[in-house]
Amino acid sequence: MDGEQELFYPHVAAFVEDRLIYLYTRRLGQQFIWCPEWYRHAEALSRLDSIWRAWEHLRLDPATGMSVWWRDHADPHMMALLDPDGPFAACRNNTHTDYPIPPLPVQEPPSGLFFDQRQPSVGG
Fold this sequence. Notes:
The chain is mostly helical. It contains 3 helices and 2 strands. The longest helix is centred in the middle third of the chain and has 18 residues, at about 65-80. Strands 1-2 form a two-stranded antiparallel ribbon. It has a domain at about 20-95. The two termini are about 35 Å apart.
């Protein structure tokens, strides 16, 4: 956005409740899963916030803004969210079985494998 543009929605929840749920209607069940408590899922909250922020920016482009929003933001994020194995996988029939789902397992990498990207490189 050039300069400071005023937001149309005050926050992501207002965007989801007023716009997104009407734009993205799907038959929920085996193929698509949605959680009414989407804000309880970190991945969903982050993806939906990203969709909202992109919409706020691209709504101001009268030429291809909404097309770009659908293609590059809404569709990829919503397909990931609605996927039966996505963040709402444990949310069927308005219940949260195995909730919260544990994070992905990780092992600490060997010492020295990574360096602090915030520090200027030594030796150029």
